[in-house]
Amino acid sequence: MKWRANLRYWLLPALMVLFAAGNALAEGNGKRLALIVGMSNYVLAGTLPNASRDAEAFDAFLKAQGFETSLVLNADRRGLAGALSNFSRKIGPDDVALFYYAGHGMQLHGENFLVGTDAKLESEFDVPAETVALSEIINALEKRARISLVFLDACRNNPLAERLTRDVEGATRGAATRGLAPIETQSGGTLVAFAAAPGQVAADGTDGHSPFTRALIANLSGAGLEVGTAFKRVVRDVRKETQGKQQPQILSSLSLEFYFGPETAAVQTPAVQTAVPQTAAQPALAIPAVDPEAIEAEKDFKKALKIGTARIWHFFVEKHRTGEYADLGRQALAQIEPVAVRNASHLPQSVEARLLPDKDKRRNVQLALAAQGFAAGTADGVFGGQTREAIKLFQSTNRQPASGFITERTAAALGIKVNDRAEGIYSATKARRYDVANLEGLETDQTVLRALTCLRHFDTVYGVFGGHLYVAVRTGTILAVYARGIAGGCGAHLASISSEEENAFVASLFNADQSFFNTGYDPSGNVSYKMGPWIGLTQDPQGKEPRGGWHWDNGAPMTYTKWFQDMPNEGKKGDDIGMYYAHRNGRADTTSVYVNTWDDMGSSDGTGGLILEFE
């Protein structure tokens, strides 16, 4: 076919949609293992004629690439779960594990499910029993394999999901909806490829195979094509075949390179030719102009892919606003951040609010405008109509878009130092380790870079509130004395909290990650406890027990409290240190308990992490 022949002439940069390349090889001495599932014959969801054929074709393709495959066709929910269980037991820590699924998928309340052939889905309560959660599959692979690859041709129109959309109350607020939902991976060696963008429905195909699977087989095994580069070609082919109606997407946290085919392309030695002197009739070869901005965008794009957090993608799309990399960056952000949050954060007023968080900074802008001859009205820190017009006029004079809102570029032209910290934008949902080299050039906060350099051996979640950087550090069980040692070594202190809003922000950093907590059952009090990170709350030994003499490690007095019920209680002598804590009475599962309250603990108590504050 002509479009395949044209692959040889594809001269665009390798835009590597959500691809993170490393210098090490992906496989080592491990095996290539694959589970391929094709679901065509559904009891009530109709027939997908091409799903089984796609699975069989992909199975043959993988075998040709050296994979040991298991092919499962038309399985009910129990059969699918059994196949996944058997497959997971085969996977070793050096292996590459690949899961491919062609069939019906659906999302409910933001979580994705793969549908067994026996599914009826008469109500939302049937979903767990008649489907398999995609997150469970990905987690199983990530725990066992060195590299986890997931290919989902599962966004096909599902009549059961459509009916559930109508029946579930509040469906328009994120219940059962079309296509699949965005996901977040936790491993540094995972790639998940979707046949269509979140919420899109993928075509089953009319000529024996779906557009997505056909493009995978045609492009993945190209010599010298790393999987991320190859997927860019998959995107191009699917968009072309579907007239732009279907946009495959990929979520990658791969820190190693992986090749389906040969790692290097064969190089043909050209025949020796006699040099021909150039004459006037022979024009010189045109050398393409080098675009420095495109080179920098490609470099930053590769860094952002390796980090893969909402915060870094925010910085990327703010830095690179146009071009193909900018479009891909916005797609990446769409995968991991709710639309409402994403859209609001880029509104001009939202950007200005982050740059100028208080009246003093706004007053400085008004004074700077007046000093340069632009009448901004009274310098009162309030941007009314006159100030907005002055900003527009200043921007126009300086050849900037005349939005009337302060941007980083406008502030720089005025000589105004602005808040360069992305207030409230978290690094990620769960703790992870960061390579600071991949943050440089994108992360705008130098304090973040210093903090993560110091904490490079720990998994962290970080964010900014009130101009201060807060870092939740996951350590495994740690005593308070060592928590304070980490704080001092990084030039920080354990967090001090002075308001309900600040406490809510700090609690939101770690509550999505259960590994920050030590949990168990205390028979003496008949409670199931959940101990969270250490904070910088301490009590003078001479303080009046149990509530007297409390203050913060940085010397600030305690003006706000969020003690758990009946705390502090001086449960044992020396309980003079604060941590996040909650419990339930009796023997209970505390997984769903949201911890935003404190308790007094002692020097011999340990918990799963700490909260650092950098001023």
Write a compact overview of the structure shown.
This protein is an alpha+beta fold and 615 residues long. It has four domains: 2-252, Rossmann fold; 297-337, no CATH class; 358-414, no CATH class; 467-615, Roll (Mannose-Binding Protein A, Chain A).
What does this structure look like?
With 615 residues, the protein is of the alpha+beta class. It folds into four domains: 2-252, 3-Layer(aba) Sandwich (Rossmann fold), CATH 3.40.50.1460; 297-337, no CATH class; 358-414, no CATH class; 467-615, Mannose-Binding Protein A, Chain A. Helices cover 33% and strands 18% of the residues. It has 20 helices and 18 strands. The protein has helices at residues 2-5, 49-64, 77-90, 127-130, 134-144, 159-167, 211-219, 227-241, 292-307, 310-319, 324-336, 339-345, 348-355, 359-371, 385-397, 408-414, 436-439, 446-454, 480-489, 500-510; strands at residues 32-38, 68-73, 96-102, 105-108, 111-115, 131-133, 147-153, 190-194, 249-252, 459-465, 468-479, 493-494, 518-522, 527-539, 550-552, 577-585, 598-601, 606-614. It has a six-stranded mixed sheet, sandwiched between helices. Strands 13, 14, 15, 16 and 17 form a five-stranded antiparallel sheet that branches. It has a four-stranded antiparallel sheet with strand order 10-11-18-12, with helices on both faces. Strand 1 (32-38), helix 2 and strand 2 form a beta-alpha-beta unit. Helix 7 packs antiparallel against helix 8 and helix 10 packs antiparallel against helix 11 (324-336). The protein starts with a helix and ends with a strand. Mean pLDDT is 79; it is low at 1-27, 167-178, 267-288 and 339-344.
